[in-house]
Amino acid sequence: MNTVKGSEFIKRIQKLAKERGLACSWHPDMGKGSHGVLKLGDTRTIVRNPKDELKTGTCHAMLKHWA
């Protein structure tokens, strides 16, 4: 996965959750400042400003939460 915007990352995870029949929710109000919480099943990760691009390493680290 190349650099993507935070909003695109959230959409991809939501699509993946739908395909796998998992609960997924985005909570922009649960983070500090421009950060928000993305929940997938029982796990969650922090996503920084959805308008900004995520670096590849950051994206991979967030995906490791669900591996």
Structure write-up:
The protein is an alpha+beta fold. It has one domain (4-64): 2-Layer Sandwich (Metal Transport, Frataxin, Chain A). 36% of the residues lie in helices and 27% in strands. It has two helices and five strands. The protein has helices at 6-20, 56-64, and strands at 4-5, 24-27, 36-40, 43-47, 53-54. A three-stranded antiparallel beta sheet has the order 2-3-4, with helices on one face. A two-stranded antiparallel sheet has the order 1-5. The protein is globular and about 30 Å long.
Write the layout of secondary structure elements.
Elements: E1 4-5, H1 6-20, E2 24-27, E3 36-40, E4 43-47, E5 53-54, H2 56-64
Antiparallel strand pairs: 1-5, 2-3, 3-4
Spatial strand order of the main sheet: 2-3-4
CATH architecture: 2-Layer Sandwich
How many β strands by DSSP?
5
**Runs with pLDDT <50, length 5+?**
none
In whole angstroms, the N-to-C terminal distance is 15 Å
Structural class: alpha+beta
Shape: globular
Q: Strand fraction band?
A: 25-35%
CATH topology: Metal Transport, Frataxin, Chain A
Largest sheet: 3 strands, antiparallel
Structurally, how many domains make up the residues?
1
**What string gives the helices and strands in order?**
EHEEEEH
Average pLDDT, rounded to a whole number, is: 87
In DSSP terms (H or I, runs of 4 or more residues), the helix count works out at 2
Short overview:
This protein is of the alpha+beta class.
Features:
Metal Transport, Frataxin, Chain A; two-stranded antiparallel ribbon; alpha+beta; 67 residues; single chain; 2 helices
